[in-house]
RNA sequence: GUGGUUGUAGCUCAGUUGGUUAGAGCGCCUGAUUGUGGUUCAGGAGGUCGUCGGUUCGAGACCGAUCUUCCACCCCA
């Protein structure tokens, strides 16, 4: 115990207030998920390595936390890999399990494994922590929560429409204004790649394009060139860099650029469908924006791609993302099962709400009323009243010791308890309760009945 | 994984070119006030200067390693 205890990099302890605030977000999201008809599932915090490895690209594999085998793991280690210090090769022989990296792949595994019990289309939500061996930064942790909602077994674009509404519903409920829901379509991206003759370099192309707003047009072109995309092809992209204006006008330009790409035009049709529906239905707080440069990660998206940006004044990455994947369960041997889903980044939403001061005052409140303890006789009398209050659904407690009054009052004050009840000898004889309002500083004598109605 | 950055009291931070017992504000504790918190007043406690090692007569200041924080890249919620 000589050393100070500590926790691993990128992990956090949560104080009661922080937990209360996190629960506020969880409950809001969960409530919205349920009103949209999603059902909860949970999956293990660790999976078999082969379930996860290779599903997120090379970069993803590097960021997956591997769990060392139990027992004498070196005896089964791949000696060749060990001797040549080939970490990648060695890993699979000493580690068979890995911590969950996201909620989507475990969900795909779940669907395949439970396909005979599931009623499709299956709408599930899942709120659990995930782990990434990333280098932490602000809003980037090695352990964090994702809140996912996905639908499998329906190709319908109405699902995409509903997910946009779901985002809007959650951010409205959190009173978070100025959120932008960016949307794009994988088919448009592959269409553009096709048009510029870079179909085989789709990922490199999209990764570079994704950086447009960050590093600028010139650097993007440089990166594309260095990845082997032809100068000729890049010059065909010119109209793309100057794309701006409304959803509709951007679509018009895209139609021209993608005129020769069947795939690309299909993507435009899908976006047009979604946009039309959303403009009919309307959004309350969020804004839907077409962003052709949106190409975030996940190699498995095949249709819509979503990303949610926090209000501009908060400098933080995205607070949510998602998309359509036509064949996610294919990797586990179940063909033609289309899925689409979105994710909320709880920890980042937390930072945003904190920065904008959007947590309601009431999240701090633990107990409604504290009874001051004057001694055993008074405590027993108080507990009788507390019992009645609790039965009426009022959070109430007794200070456990007959400490100095000042100490008990200070305790109530620090814990943000809005009411204090004083029951001394005088109150017992007259069967009354002195109720003190801690915010106003006023107090009055009331009956048990009045106490209940005042506190309810 | 690469490059950089940060770390002094519970919190926010001072600490001059290395030089006696390391400071402030806020918070905390005690009392004024033995049935009244949040205000006021008077006292008081609290620091292995992230950790380990090195240079030096002397290190909170300089050097190295390590951990942590934040930032950029990578990638991403």
Automatic annotation (TrEMBL):
Listed InterPro entries: aa-tRNA-synth_II, aa-tRNA-synth_II/BPL/LPL, Anticodon-bd, Anticodon-bd_dom_sf, His-tRNA-ligase, HisRS-like_core, HisRS/HisZ, HisRS_anticodon
Record keyword Ligase present: yes
Gene Ontology biological-process entries: histidyl-tRNA aminoacylation
Any one GO molecular-function label of the UniProt entry: histidine-tRNA ligase activity
Start and end residues of each Aminoacyl-transfer RNA synthetases class-II family profile domain: 1-400
Listed EC numbers: 6.1.1.21
Reactions catalysed according to its record: tRNA(His) + L-histidine + ATP = L-histidyl-tRNA(His) + AMP + diphosphate + H(+)
Pfam families: HGTP_anticodon, tRNA-synt_His
Keyword Metal-binding: no
Cellular compartments annotated: Cytoplasm
GO CC annotation: cytoplasm
Keyword terms of this UniProt record: Aminoacyl-tRNA synthetase, ATP-binding, Cytoplasm, Ligase, Nucleotide-binding, Protein biosynthesis
Chief site of localization: cytoplasm
Highest rank taxon of the organism: Bacteria
Binding-site residues for L-histidine, renumbered to this chain: 102-104, 132, 146, 150, 296, 300-301
Enzyme class, broadest EC rank: ligase
HAMAP family: His_tRNA_synth
Subunit structure: Homodimer.
Similarity comment: family membership: Belongs to the class-II aminoacyl-tRNA synthetase family.
Protein name per its UniProtKB record: Histidine--tRNA ligase
